[in-house]
């Protein structure tokens, strides 16, 4: 009888435990509770992130869906990451098929996918060698180190001698949050807590060659520039400025380094943003859309830079991951297709033209519409007369996802597969917002 009673008690405990589990499962998922309890506070809890209950579960094309099944039109693509959109079938098939094979081997051994991706990048660019990393900031950190190695060689000195170690980047630019990349980033708000940072970095005025002339010297190892400043508000470099910058770098044997983490890989309607200009950089960095949402970064470089690197001077555990590189090869092959890029140009022009019509209709609301040079790209800024927070909130209420780039500017970087119907919806939301004096 005692044994039977104990069994009954344990059975009741299991039932009670299961009941509590079912009750807990039945409660709606509240991301704010989890964030407050488990995540470090690196993101602002206010704004769209703080929209209680908004948890995205899946997506298709330019649409995202939340737990309630609501459809949201995505016009920021994870900040220019989801170039092929959400749920791309080729992306998914590549992930599944290659995931069955091998997910990681040490870089002490070869695997096929990173070698094939490196070949694909080199064959379709102006560069000779590739180094793989895991993110944009890692790519820029690598570019900084490779530039230092090249500078050491041409100056025939060591870093401690300080013959050639300085860098120039540009005000309102963004290059990342690790040590050198953060130093290169001209955004005091995110740098001031970590001072002092890497020495020898100077900030020039964007599109002002005289500003660069005052800073550059034979001590300059490299110049970092985004051909289109993203975080700064979608400001494209002027063609003449880029040509003169290339000439200045050549004069002082400094490397020209284009950060195309956000503006590269089809975003401007060209495979690489520097192709819009009559210049060839010495180094280019890539990341965001390269693997369509999986973490990857890449540093592409000329032979003259690569020849300054010796084994052991830089490395990575996860960079060149075979699974990620296989998926990236699928993404790259689709994005560099001529018809795909023509479609980006066409949709980009359609978007910019629509925004310019709104600017003409609402001159008291819209100050400027900015876009890359060239035929058109899906990278457009709408600068308004007032802070755009209320417009972002209004758009969210209409199930449209947009982000800012500065207090008064909306940055639009949708999936590269967005169509005219999607663009029309965005334009309609903006028009209604201006009519209702949301700003």
From TrEMBL:
Which family does the record assign?
Belongs to the class-III pyridoxal-phosphate-dependent aminotransferase family.
Q: Give the primary localization class.
A: mitochondrion
Q: In which pathway does it act?
A: Amino-acid biosynthesis; L-arginine biosynthesis; N(2)-acetyl-L-ornithine from L-glutamate: step 4/4
Originating species: Phytophthora cactorum
Q: EC annotation?
A: 2.6.1.11
Recorded hits in PROSITE patterns, A to Z, give:
AA_TRANSFER_CLASS_3
User: What cofactors does this protein use?
Assistant: pyridoxal 5'-phosphate
One GO BP annotation of this record: arginine metabolic process
Does the record carry Transferase as a key word?
Answer: yes
Q: What's the protein name?
A: acetylornithine transaminase
Which keywords does the record carry? Amino-acid biosynthesis, Aminotransferase, Pyridoxal phosphate, Transferase
In which compartments does the protein localize?
Mitochondrion
């Amino acid at each position: 009888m005692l044994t039977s009673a104990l069994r009954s008690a344990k059975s009741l405990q299991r039932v009670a435990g299961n009941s509590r589990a079912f009750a807990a499962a039945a409660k709606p998922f509240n991301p704010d509770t989890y964030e407050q309890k488990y995540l470090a506070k690196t993101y602002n809890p206010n704004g769209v992130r703080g929209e209680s209950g908004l948890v995205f579960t899946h997506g298709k094309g330019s649409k995202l869906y939340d737990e309630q099944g609501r459809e949201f039109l995505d016009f920021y693509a994870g900040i220019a990451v989801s170039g092929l959109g959400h749920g791309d079938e080729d992306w998914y098939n590549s992930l599944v098929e290659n995931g069955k094979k091998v997910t990681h081997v040490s870089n002490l051994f070869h695997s096929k996918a990173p070698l094939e991706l490196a070949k694909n990048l080199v064959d379709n660019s102006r560069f000779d060698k590739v180094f793989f990393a895991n993110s944009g900031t890692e790519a820029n950190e690598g570019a900084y180190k490779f530039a230092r190695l090249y500078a050491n060689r041409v100056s025939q000195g060591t870093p401690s001698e300080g013959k050639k170690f300085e860098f120039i980047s540009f005000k309102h630019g963004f290059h990342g949050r690790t040590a050198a990349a953060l130093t290169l980033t001209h955004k005091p708000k995110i740098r001031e807590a970590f001072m002092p940072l890497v020495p020898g970095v100077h900030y020039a005025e964007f599109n002002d060659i005289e500003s660069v002339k005052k800073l550059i010297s034979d001590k300059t190892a490299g110049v970092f520039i985004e051909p289109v400043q993203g975080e700064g508000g979608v400001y494209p470099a002027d063609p003449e400025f880029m040509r003169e910058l290339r000439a200045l770098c050549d004069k002082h044997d400094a490397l020209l380094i284009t950060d195309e983490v956000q503006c590269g890989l089809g975003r401007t309607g060209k495979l690489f943003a520097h192709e819009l200009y009559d210049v060839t950089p010495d180094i280019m960095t890539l990341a965001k859309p390269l693997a369509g949402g999986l973490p990857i970064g890449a540093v592409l470089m000329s032979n003259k830079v690569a020849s300054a690197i010796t084994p052991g001077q830089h490395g990575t555990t996860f960079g060149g991951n075979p699974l990620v590189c296989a998926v990236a090869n699928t993404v790259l092959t689709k994005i560099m297709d001529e018809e795909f890029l023509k479609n980006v140009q066409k949709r980009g022009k359609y978007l910019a033209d629509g925004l310019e019509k709104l600017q003409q209709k609402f001159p008291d609301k819209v100050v400027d519409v900015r876009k890359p040079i060239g035929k058109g790209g899906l990278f457009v800024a709408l600068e308004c007369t007032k802070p755009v927070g209320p417009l972002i909130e209004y758009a969210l209420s209409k199930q449209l996802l947009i982000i800012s780039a500065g207090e008064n500017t909306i940055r639009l970087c949708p999936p590269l597969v967005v169509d005219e119907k999607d663009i029309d919806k965005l334009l309609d939301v903006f028009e209604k917002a201006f009519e209702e004096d949301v700003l």
